[in-house]
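PROTEIN DATA CARD
Card holder: SWIM zinc finger
Chain length: 477
Origin: Paenibacillus uliginis N3/975
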Amino acid sequence: MVEITETWIDSLAPNSAAIKNGQGLVKKGRFLQLNHSEDKVVLFGTCAGSGSSHYQPSADFAIPEKPVMRCTCPSRQFPCKHVLGLLYAYADGAAFTPGVVPEDLAAKREKAEKREERKIKEAAEGVAPKPKKVNKSALKKKITTQLEGLDVLEKLIHSLIRNGLGTMDKKELKLIKDHVKQMGNYYLSGAQNELRRLSLLLSDSEDQETAYTYAAEQLAVMNAFIKKGRLYLTAKLEDPEMALDHESTIEEWLGHAWQLTELQSFGLVSEQVELIQLSFLSYADDARQEYVDIGYWIQKDSGEIHRTIQYRPYKAAKRMREDDSFFEVAAIPMLYRYPGDMNRRVRFEEMISKPVTTQDLEWIKAFSANSYAEAVKKVKNQLKNPLSDKNPVMLLQVSRVCQNTDGQYAITDGSGQSIGLGDVYLEPTVPLLRYLPEEKLSGVSMLVMFEHCLVTGRLLAQPLTIITETELIRLLY
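Structure generated from the sequence above:
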């Protein structure tokens, strides 16, 4: 069976309330019975409900990296608080007695085993999952509509540039918002998000000078999107296969949601990978009208820094599981990679967790970049592309952290080159450095998030995590 730890259970919970409620069931002694199967593969029990009803939660570890959670309660949350409570009770060392798996649960397990056997047989015979078949006629119509939408968007952007941002009034703001709605009709969700982002910037009345600086940058991004999008869609119409571009992010900009079977068909998958999460952040993106949960992970065999990204639409956020910080090693059977540059987005469906050891900290530090000149060059090359991620993350070796007379922090490498530190994300972390002892700020590795500050013209790095020989110090969870 997989090692059941509190951290691992927390990662399964749909939200923080479910964690609290699950732990509460254990503390209040609501479990009337706790059992495990003879082979200890299945945990099951009986939990007292709020009324006269009792519920039967269970956790089936027949496939350790993909446990199956079930419960007889009517909750729409998955896993529910009763299953979480069952797992917390096990992790806390509660007494589980051997028992016979209930008949209804045994029947469900048998059906699941047959489905899994069929999958294993197909995999052994080399039968790969097929991507969804594309209706080329419908796709051509969609692309034609998208091209029309890009023409409409271009006319608006050129009009805004000709008139100048300083002349922006309520009438033009309303025009932009009307076009936001139109972009949805043209299947251009990416353009819709970026146009809404422009509208939000121009609506900022507190600091108009800074808002106009970033609005000008946003106009440049949208102009680049229009040009690259038009070239790509035109070429795709001429391609008999109408193949997806699996090397750049243009498909996502145009609103394509990648399916795992598509990524697998392009070979964007790795087997038996170990990841450790180095940092986690969550924020509300009003332009996308979604909450965004991002985890930064390092891959053991390559040292690459990946991102897991979950989008939770405002309207559906209550019904979706929040991602959260994860503090253990994730052993992953299949890791799917999305097209992109630095910090490619990844996704996995199954994992087994295990504790982080000092040996893990050693290999993490070994992958940190020791030349700031090379690191900055790599970052700047990415930032040259207007459609790239504007906040790349890297792991750097830090000879020491220093502070000048103005209180500005900087990190230096072994050759004496330095990079200024600053807060580029909503949650500040630089002020936390003053609370760390000197030994935690020299001869360490540091995960940093870069940003080119448009106001000052400087490249700044925000510290996210410090890696020493004995611990991970996460400044931003």
